[in-house]
Amino acid sequence: MTRVLRRSLIASAVAVAVGLGSLGALQAAPAGKLEIFSWWTAGGEAEALNAVFGIYHARYPAVQIVNATVAGGAGTNAKAVLKTRMLGGDPPDSFQVHAGHELIDTWVRNGSMEPLTGLFKAEGWTTAMPRGLLDILSYKGDIWSVPVNIHRANVLWYNKKIFADAHLAPPATFDEFFKDADALKAKGIVPFALGDKEGWEAGHAFEAVLIAALGADGYRGLWTGTTPWTGPKVTAALEIFKRMLAYANTDHAALTWDGAGEYIMGRKGAMMIMGDWANGWFTSKNFNEYGWAPPPGNMGVYDALSDSFGLPKKVRDRENVMAWLRVLGSREGQQAFNPLKGSICARTDCSPSVFGAYQRWAMTQWTTDAIVPSVIHGAAASEGWATDYKDAIALFVTSRDTAATQQALAKACVNAGVCK
Ligand code: GAL
């Protein structure tokens, strides 16, 4: 009898003896808890998360899923709660984190995460996911989190009926935008719906204005130090944004991003610039009067971000988390999540047929557009810099002081160590 055969016979005997019956069953089926931390509470995103939970639960019914959400768009409140927990040695089993600088600079460099390269290889994700995305999930030769989607930040959402009634087309340039805006205002409609209560939404819209003023390469250079923040194109972007703000609803400071969406839905507002979670939100409200286009001057540029989840060190039950990550990265998981979320899959092999019209459009744009990183959503810059940028633009909404804002933006780049 060979040693291997002998060992396996002994093992089988042990298995039978303990009433498990088979060798496979000797590996305990996942049980216990799985706590997933995110800020997905709005319509569309909550359903999307639940859809993945549904798959997980069907596969691992003995695991109790704890849905730890902290409401607030773009992680406004969640990120602070997460920091407290991580510093206090109480990590959630897995948490939402944006691919790019937010993941690497906030959590990987300081050794809070476990590498997942082996998982990516075993699951074939190094070929099923785009190189550019894998690159921003990587640090020192390892991959550190599992992306569930790709969101597009620069989308102009508009009410189709309002535009049809006014015989207008969505504006391709800012000259057209302001012309349309005057015509809509004359009809008593808010041209530019905005909700900037949480402090990030104006900075989000301003990314699209920067892209229009600088082009894809110029915009990218802002984050790598090759485009000066002190230059005339940034001034021009701020001036455009100032003009746009004059067409916004007066209650913008009291509304969150979905509050601006209510303007579009209620036929009170014509346009808004928001990420494509708005697509998931509109859909969750059974609203289908919306159209979409690249914001003015954004044709051919995809301002991208990706939500991902990783494996923090010292979690209670590592196997439950690994199982979660496997579901999240799978085609089944991504095809359940993304149609509801408004985003497209991080994987390149999802079937367009499970998606709605907006997402089929986005899937095509993703393959043809120049891809640039969103700063508000963690891809372009480390959190300190992203916060300085966000705060400078939030202040601009009330101050409308172009010179002071441009100075603050330039200083933020210096403080980040990227500009001299
Ligand atoms: C982004 C996030 C999206 C969506 C959005 C609104 O930062 O990546 O998934 O949740 O915030 O909260």
Describe the structure.
The structure is a single chain. The strands form 4 sheets. Strands 2-1-3-13-6 form a 5-stranded mixed sheet, sandwiched between helices. Strands 9-10-8-11 form a 4-stranded mixed sheet. It has 18 helices and 14 strands. Helix 10 crosses helix 17. By secondary structure, the chain is α/β, with parallel strands linked by helices. The radius of gyration is 23 Å and the shape is globular. The N and C termini lie far apart (73 Å). Strand 4 and strand 5 form a beta hairpin. It has 2 domains: 204 residues, D-Maltodextrin-Binding Protein, domain 2; 198 residues, Periplasmic binding protein-like II (D-Maltodextrin-Binding Protein, domain 2, 3-Layer(aba) Sandwich), CATH 3.40.190.10. The N terminus is likely disordered. Beta-D-galactopyranose binds next to loops.
